[in-house]
């Protein structure tokens, strides 16, 4: 049998079916201390090295479900104790889990282990072309000529194609198909392009529509002037999670705190996936942050 990966990113080495015993060797005191609250948790080996890190809105219930799962026997055999960190909500748990897995690289986690390259669309003024560009090639956290945020170059290319179709732009002029001077592109021939390729639509009009279409993606790069704090509160615990250009910078606790921004911003596609939709839907309590005085209101 081959190892498999669960939907929560747990590596599942093959183990004999029916050969599972409840892991009595895991320290009972560490299990008894678990709260029914949101946060992240660690399964630690006897050397106190994390073998698996997870998150839950109910830490205790989630840990107990691990302990009763035969498919996780290999991980549980290596675990010796359990520790946890409380968070004030689910967003903090998601951000902290992603950060810890990248930092500590637990053996039985495979998802969230690295900050992969992310891509945006760059508008090239001289040629009027739009091209995918990766974070290893350019700082995609800069907003000047970059639009959208994508997990791969192919996703960025498909995002551009979708933008062209949706706004009836010319794929030939944007470099998506070979342009023949004086000849209509295929999209124009089937009525899906306004005819900029054959002069039917003036170049300045096509360019203005292109810019307008790209502006709709601009907010996805980073919709704020600088870093922001995401405020969560639960049962007397108040936390402010600092995020800047889709980079999680840490969590402040208490009414008044300070933080020093990192000059190097690394867009983290996992942070983007966690926060972009709730931000767009207005589901998060967000406060702007200043570098030297990060006071939440």
Automatic annotation (TrEMBL):
Source superkingdom: Bacteria
Q: Does the keyword Metal-binding apply?
A: no
Extract the SMART domains matched here: GIYc (SM00465)
Keywords assigned by UniProt? DNA damage, DNA excision, DNA repair, Endonuclease, Excision nuclease, Hydrolase, Nuclease, SOS response
Q: Which residues form the GIY-YIG domain?
A: 36-110
Q: Does the keyword Nucleotidyltransferase apply?
A: no
Quote the protein name from its UniProt record: Excinuclease cho
